[in-house]
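Quick board copy: two proteins, each given as sequence then tokens.
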Amino acid sequence: MEGGEGGICEYIPEQPPEAVLTARRDVSGSPVTAIGCVSTRRGRVREGAVNMRWYRDLIALCRQAGGVFSSPCTGNDTNINRKEMKNMGIYEELVARGLIAQVTNEDEIREMINNGKATFYIGFDCTADSLTAGHFMALTLMKRLQMAGNKPIALIGGGTTMIGDPSGRTDMRKMLTKEDIDHNAECFKRQMERFIDFGEGKAIMLNNADWLLKLNYVDLLREVGACFSVNNMLRAECYKQRMEKGLSFLEFNYMIMQSYDFYYMFQHNGCNMQFGGNDQWSNMLGGTELIRRKLGKDAHAMTITLLTDSQGNKMGKTAGNAVWLDPNKTSPFEFYQYWRNIDDADVLKCIRMLTFLPLEQIDAMADWEGAKLNEAKDILAYELTKLVHGEDEAEKARQASKALFSGAGDTEHMPTTELTNDDFGGGAIDVLTLLVKCGLAASKGEARRLVQQGGVTVNDEKVPAIETTFGCEQFTGDGVIIKKGKKVFHRAVLV
């Protein structure tokens, strides 16, 4: 956005490309006024949910410019459902997309985020050197809320990672060194910048190591320890599921540390709301209660729906490994293929929850079947790959995918594993080892099942038995193309 006093602020939304919205402040201190309406190439105003979406974006623009929203578009030619537009805020859109799981006070939260009054945070523990597809929900939520005028705080868990979140775990997390955590935090920052605008006054990034590592243990116990009931803590789901197999005292402190984060940022950064996955509910309530008891003020929490498939399993893993946002860990083509190959039952849910396509457009896909459902999968894969890796990489992945399925055999953008002579004992490699080395199976046991079920082909020939081997000479030049199932392609080449 450009402009300011006496200037023009122009906003060009991603969808649809023909829509242009502008805002103007005539004199210092006057309202920022919408100039024109959401138009199409035919000069007509878009109707329904799409129309409202652009108006919400314009409202956010006006707020960022320091004014209030008003519109000269009052004529009958605008075709705006005023009642619907009034009621359809960002909160209602989150509900319509199926993103909201639990809230502490729905009326207050709705009012805050619909009017751009929320300064909210989402925490990310640095357990790896890349974010994963499992973080998508949080990242897109932050983007949606920022577009609506709210201020995100991306909290890097440099301190809490040293303890380890027991939520959703059957065993204790691996303890990382401070050096590893710092490295992972830097990787997170670079990836988040693709989703969140960290420009001045728009969003901030903090690291809880900056205050947690400075705490005196006895002082902490005296300051906040009395605000937590051990009985209540043990009733939390994140602890209950660990009690039988053993819960370390280290992990038992995680709720207190996360609650302290909220308490600290409430005082120092004006943070009045926390968002997180539905498995974080107990930890988030700990923070709101700590603020209430220590400061006598209200803070708010909202959980978002966990990204699961139709069977209830967490999405974002393939061949036993996470789907990473780092292109060096999961290539744009592999990332695209993961979403292109999800189950039919999960397609529309993922489009609704993860993409920024208008709800009106998504609703029109509800009855798609067969070839049209494959088109929806392509839309999902393209939109998400574009979000993470950019439009150019998304287009390359789409074209490579189409070429493979058409038999053109484009390998330029196909995920590739480089093998060395050391991988070939006696000048050959068995199919089970090959599948594991290429990341197409998490173990030789899984590879064995794939082959026995007839799900593996090499250079268009089905692998007949688990004893099958391949000579190193087959991997020279362009290498070999391995196909797992009907849709997963991988190249292996000798270097």
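And the next:
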Amino acid sequence: MQSNAEVFHQPLKTQSAIFDYLYEQLVMFDLNIIRSENKTQFEVAFSNYLSLVQQYKDVYTNEIDVLFKRTEHFFMYVRNTVKGKGQKMQFYIMIYFYYHFFQDRCVDFLQRSLTNEYFGSYCDFKYLCEYIYDKTLDKTHPLIQLLVKLHVSLLFKNSQNIFINKWIPREKTKFKWLYHLYAMEFSNISNYKYKNKNDAYCFFRKYISKHSYTCEKNMCFNDLHTIDTTEKNLEKYFYFFADKHTQLRRFYNSKHITKYHHINHNAFNPGAIMKTMFKLINNGVHESNCIYDLLNNKWKQCIQFYKKIFLPQDFIIFMDLSYKNFHNNNDVFYNILGMSCFLSHFSKKAYKRMFLCTNTPIWINLQKCDNLYAMAMAFKKNLQYDTYTSCEIHLPIYLLVQSFFETQDSNIEEQTLVFMQGVNIEHTYKYVLNLNLNPQKLVFWNFCDFLYFNNGLYSNLYNNKVQMISGNNENALYSLWKEQHMFDNLLYKIKCN
């Protein structure tokens, strides 16, 4: 198999071939933008992409300008937390290399995007600086200086914005070096006459403390009315909420409080909710605890919201929950589990069943599960991590074909087969396509692996019956229901953002 680096340097003879190839690379990046710890391959691939753009920028000026705009829109689509991928690390990688190859364009893009409150998160300033420092070992890198200046100027102009303050680096953390840069920049912009650097650090420390409203600070004051009960906070501080469940239940049921009755569907993360639910169950938190009510309620309201948008389909889901997948990255495990449970609500049939693909394939029936807690318990009874070793995809497919043959109550042409995997998705992709099963749609959902597919993907870029999806967010769901081929689907998503 050819590597991306090898393919990138193949000669492209015509103008059309050049730009077709470059746009195809955007599709490849879209499929590989997932929460993966292995970022080296993505760095190499994107660096090669920009290198090729640089090679042709003086030859095809007008076309390259369009490509630049499309690429910057792609950046925004990758980082957008509402209708995009909501991914940080890949966004940081792309910005770093964009600055390396096209410095002026990158500076202009950052000034327009990072200062927009509807784009990304204010945490990007801090973590992008960290990534740049890890790559260059230079604390005074020009891009770091630019980011510090942008963030401090926002802080100075909008001191009451709790989210700007929340993501300011703190002094007693690993970001101490960055805190010092922020403090000096803030002292300069505010015209504070500091005696020495320590005086500037103290001044900045008092300022951000005064304007900070974090979950931890509110917990110290036992202020339930202002505590942010996101899935992450519930998971991180579930002992606190377990101790306070009586008060929280009273607060939750209060007619004066509407916070938990208004669910932001854009913040819905099935994997995060499932992970929190499993952690509560594994730690023996009693079923009657108010935290279960919060999670079940959010899950129910989000399902109701999406049922108004998405029409039912005949989904048959194949879940790769092998031990290797769970052991290496349990976030992948919970993302697959959560998204599979979510899709089960949209089956046309009365039953909600899916395959658990390990070395011993198992049908999981969720028909009698009326809430998220019941779903989690149904899976917990069937999950034995120490006995499941691998994902043998041919076994559940054989059982599926056999069941259709024996029952004859439906046919495979009416089904949408969804393969949710964290590793070895390329093997599944090639194996299933060679079977010629001819379902209504084939969906290959990537949750963690880096995909090449240099020899087999592009032939299906314009195929409506074969879909490649990645990630665990709302945008992936919209991709699943759209009757568009991958290339047009990506361009549509970029345009919307």
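Board note added afterward: Residues 1-14, 250-262 have pLDDT under 50 and may be disordered.
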